[in-house]
Amino acid sequence: MSTDRAIRTAASVWLSTLIGIGVAGAVVTAGLGLRGSSAVTWAAPTFSAIVAVLSTGTVLLLRGRRHTATGLSAGIAAAMVVWAAGQVLTALTVRSGDSAFPLIGDLLTFPALPLATLALLAVPSRHRQRDTALRLGVDATALGFASALLMWWFAYRPRADGPASAQGALVAVVAVAAITLAYLALLTAIRDLDIALIGVAAGIGLLSLGTLLTMYQVLGTGHQRGWLGAALLCLAWPPIAAGALNHRGPGEDDDLLVPAVDPDARVVAVTTTASLVLLSVGLVAILVMGARKVDSVSLLLVLSSVITFWLRELLNARQRADLLRRVYDEATADPLTGLANRRVLTARLAALPPYEAWSLLVVDLDGFKDFNDLFGHPAGDRLLRATAHRLRSAAPPGATVSRLGGDEFAVLAPGERSQGMQIGHRLVAAVRLCAGDMQLSTRIPVSASVGVAELRGGRPTVPAGVNRTVPDPARAGGTGGRVGFKGVGNAGDTGSPGGAGDARSTG
Length: 507
Known about the structure:
Layout: H1 2-35, H2 40-62, H3 70-95, H4 104-109, H5 112-121, H6 132-159, H7 165-192, H8 195-221, H9 227-246, H10 263-289, H11 296-332, H12 342-350, E1 357-366, H13 368-375, H14 377-394, E2 400-405, E3 408-414, H15 417-437, E4 445-456, E5 459-460, E6 483-490, E7 504-505
């Protein structure tokens, strides 16, 4: 325990030192830029590379000693390696006298943005549902295209006119990637409300802002990259590394309560309005200010925004359909066994054809309370699930198998009383088999009583000579027109012929 505490303390101290190194690199870069030194053009990517390399080593060395999300840590480390390699190559190229954008180092640096995006999409979540990563990615992309459209129209486009159109298109692509990454980090943090992910989002925000400022500067000069964006890039990687290391994966926060609000609802609330507002503002700006010819980059951004928003709405529609399906299942199915509940059985009874004979069989597990007291409720739940499985297998086609509550089940099947009696024998045998499904070391007697009532038009029929005071057929223990069966089985009994538990008539 003391060794682990020492490792955690040393890791915390080193992470604080790493953040200090990033701040020092940003201060030096800003100082060179304010002084107008030409050395900032190669010093800035050098400091950024140093911080990225140190952050990479931190993640790779400490990841195995800290409880972290492997997907996030590995993806962030890969992005850092690519970024550092590109920055080193950029610094060497600028040092040799070539500074025209884009350099080979720039082209190697930019893939770090999609790598970081994939790392965020791989973040495991305690509340992950179907297509969570896809929905987050589409939401962030919709916001990214809409924001990039505004940024391109008001900031980048005026500086990209003329012969720099190809350069401007590359800048637009990088801007979309950077903005999308920032939105994805923000939406992930909003969704999970995790302090570590908030740190990652803050670092990625600095990374994206630094990239956007650098792109803005090179569009105006063609080679001068500016010191402010470079200073932000030095500050970006340490908080990203710290957040990736401190993020806790599934199973490590079992003591946390599941939030009452669906986490995806928070994301939808943020993205629905924001994406619509951004896209609308961009379209209005193009229509109002588009006296000059609209460029191809703007048209592509508008088209991409519309397509992404359409895909996002398709995903939301499927999410709503899944939610309605879950609500329907919860309203009609027993949560423990998955069988139909009493509400479904009542509806089926009310909808029975008036001139057709149906049999209602009520199955009661005898001694279930004693079983629960002896082996505990988890074992009792397993017995109920095993019983449900066996009853479903023994029921004829077209029958409705439901759980009435507790240890009572019901089977509604087509056919007269004689056919219901045959089904009752099969149900008793099924319960005898489910006793062996429990796989308990002690042989436990498990018995079941089955009551059979014939129904026409949803009401029981009473044969001659039987008391006509007939209770609700959906309740176990009814006597009107009822024939009973009882069977006893032992755990470990696989239903071999002649074993205990052979069905016998009791009524």
